[in-house]
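Hey team,

Sharing the PhoD-like phosphatase domain-containing protein run so nobody has to redo it. Sequence (328 residues) first:
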Amino acid sequence: MSLQKPHSPTAETRSFAGPWLRFGSGTGPQDGDQWRGSVLCLTRAHSRVAAAAAPGGGGSTGPNGGTAYPGFSPAGLAAGPATPTAGLTGAAAGTATAPRPVLLLRDARSGGGGGSSGTADRRLDQPSPLDSCEGWTAWRFELELSLTEWQRPVEYCLEAGGQSTPTYTFWLPAVGQPMHWGYYSCNGMSDDVKRDAPERNDPTYLWRDLLQLHSAFPLHCLVGGGDQLYNDGVWQTPMLKAWGANTDHDKKVEAEWTPQMEAEATHYYLTNYIDSFSAADIDVAMASIPGVMMWDGQANMQCIVCNMAVRRHWTKPPSCMCHMKPCG
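Structure output:
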């Protein structure tokens, strides 16, 4: 079930998704003073956006759920530098092109003073294309930063097609400092929650609470303990719904997995991952707090871009979880 609020942009009308920040290592006894992580984002081939966008479609949700990212809209994404997706393993790979993003990073330690103005200290323009699906390409930027005796903020933003995201800030712990970390699970609602249930009116209020805590006492890592999203709705796609309605058990077992089933399921997973992780408040948390995730059956179903690229991005285990300090 998607956490998107009514009238929020969906994957059908987006041309950019992310950024999502991953924690890799940096607090274990063998890490020294090196922190490692990565940033994931998705860009979409311009022709795909134009074909999917409804007339008058808007841009994507900003940090507070209301302001659109400049240029990241179906009509506004210019045809900037593009990278052919030939050779990637996802569905529809090899024919679509998507703008190659650039990451601009400002680290207070490097003399930039931590301010948001001026030229970025580092420009990363060679992200790794992880996979491609339905015109989307998933990109990963590897980060490696040195820890110091004080915790400090690091700022970054992304550019694609001549436009840019807002600037986000994440915090690095000091050398030897136990990380202040948060934990979440069950990020969504299963299909048995009634459509008029009061909790559906404001499904991300706990994320706002987390962000308030983060603003006062910065979190260095956010651990997803399972059910990072709910994919129950895949069983409502036409072909799988028809298969599930068949009361003949033997025919169910013998039924083939058809190309149409795969196309419907792939489209569902792709859009559900993008919409769920781009929901207001969730998007800011995942862009501002390095995350690591554990996966279970709800989130572990087959998906081309999302299951492959997102899991590659987030599931590399931290070097030493015992050096973390829980929030609260």
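Residues 16-326 form one domain.

Ping me if you want the raw files.
A.
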